[in-house]
């Protein structure tokens, strides 16, 4: 399998490493019995490489793993074997955004607070293109030619399937009222939101004007959650880029900001009614 580190492979590797260290044997000792290099054992334990099942059973035997430990190791191996959704992107995409794409693909949940536009995972292609065309000064020709909008559409597969991303989105009512790309484009976008809001893994709320001020009105807030013990990662987006926040104390503060905004927002049912009313207004034009 490709030597790409993922959280699932890292959790498996850390568990196997713990069993090896408890047994008191070196990576070189294990490598010799498996006819591997010690560096390959290191790659397994650090989450860059997933060993074959036969190699796993051999290691568990060497480590005198108990029955429940064997079951846990096999379960973690099965999880690690599942490839994350692969999102294709050009090398023209900035490095920091490539990190964003990898994190998004590896996450199991996302909470997004947006004050200016529809969250990327919920956008229609026409809406996304209208946004891109509105800010030509912030995207290079290479970025535009790389199929940035197409990549954004491909990312939406993360919301599908048995391992679909669990998404909670809170958007300002201005996002619903602002006619991006014209009446036809915006109507299609709002109908898409109504459709997505019916899914079990998507919870959409709107903050109405009457709610007053709320946290992070100066910019979008995105919080990624992961399986296991990995802590949340926060992405603060700004024009032309963004900043990662991974300190546990700080991520907790941003999580509190999101939850407070969600509390001030309309319920999912009320939000759907507001969006439906806006569709009616646009269609009446």
Describe this structure in words.
By secondary structure, this protein is an alpha/beta fold. The chain folds into two domains: 7-81, Orthogonal Bundle (434 Repressor (Amino-terminal Domain)), CATH 1.10.260.40; 95-284, Endonuclease, Chain A (2-Layer Sandwich). It has 13 helices and six strands. Helix 2 (27-34) packs across helix 3 and helix 11 runs antiparallel to helix 13 (268-283). The N and C termini lie far apart (55 Å). Mean pLDDT is 87; it is low at 85-92. It comes from Actinokineospora auranticolor. Residues 16-70 form the HTH cro/C1-type domain. This is Helix-turn-helix protein. GO terms for molecular function: DNA binding.
CATH class type of the largest domain: Alpha Beta
By secondary-structure content and strand pairing, the structural class works out as alpha/beta
Biggest sheet descriptor: 6 strands, mixed
Q: In the CATH scheme, what's the topology name of the largest domain? A: Endonuclease, Chain A
- The average pLDDT value, as a whole number, equals 87
Number of helices: 13
Order of helices and strands: HHHHHHEHHHEHHEEEEHH
Helix content: 40-55%
* Beta-strand content bin: 5-15%
Please give the alpha-carbon distance between the first and last residues: 55 Å
Strand order of the largest sheet: 3-2-1-4-5-6
Q: How many separate structural domains? A: 2
CATH architecture of the largest domain: 2-Layer Sandwich
Shape: elongated
Number of strands: 6
Radius of gyration: 23 Å
Low-confidence stretches: 85-92
GO molecular function, one term: DNA binding
Organism: Actinokineospora auranticolor
Protein name: Helix-turn-helix protein
């Amino acid at each position: 399998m490709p030597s790409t580190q993922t959280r699932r492979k890292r959790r498996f590797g850390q568990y196997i490493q713990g069993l090896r260290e408890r047994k008191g044997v070196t990576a070189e000792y294990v490598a010799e019995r498996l006819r591997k290099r010690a560096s390959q054992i290191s790659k397994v334990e650090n989450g860059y490489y997933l060993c074959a099942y036969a190699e796993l059973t051999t290691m568990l035997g060497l480590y005198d793993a108990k029955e429940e430990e064997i079951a846990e190791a096999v379960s973690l191996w099965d999880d690690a074997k599942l490839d994350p959704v692969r999102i294709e992107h050009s090398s023209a995409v900035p490095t920091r955004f490539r990190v964003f794409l990898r994190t998004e693909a590896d996450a199991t949940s996302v909470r997004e607070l947006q004050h200016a536009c529809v969250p990327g995972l919920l956008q229609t292609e026409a809406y996304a293109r209208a946004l891109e065309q509105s800010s030509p000064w912030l995207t290079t020709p290479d970025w535009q030619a790389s199929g940035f909008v197409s990549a954004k559409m491909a990312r939406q597969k993360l919301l599908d399937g048995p391992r679909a991303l669990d998404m909670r989105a809170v958007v300002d009512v201005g996002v619903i009222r602002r006619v991006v790309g014209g009446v036809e484009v915006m109507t299609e976008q709002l109908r898409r939101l109504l459709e997505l809001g019916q899914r079990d893994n998507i919870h959409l709320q709107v903050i109405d004007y009457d709610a007053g001020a709320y946290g992070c009105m100066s910019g979008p807030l995105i919080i990624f959650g992961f399986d296991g013990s990995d802590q949340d990662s926060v992405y603060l987006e700004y024009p032309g880029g963004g900043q990662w926040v991974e300190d546990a104390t700080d991520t907790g503060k941003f999580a509190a900001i999101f939850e407070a905004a969600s509390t001030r927002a309309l319920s999912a049912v009320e939000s759907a009614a507001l969006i439906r009313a806006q569709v009616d207004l646009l269609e009446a034009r």
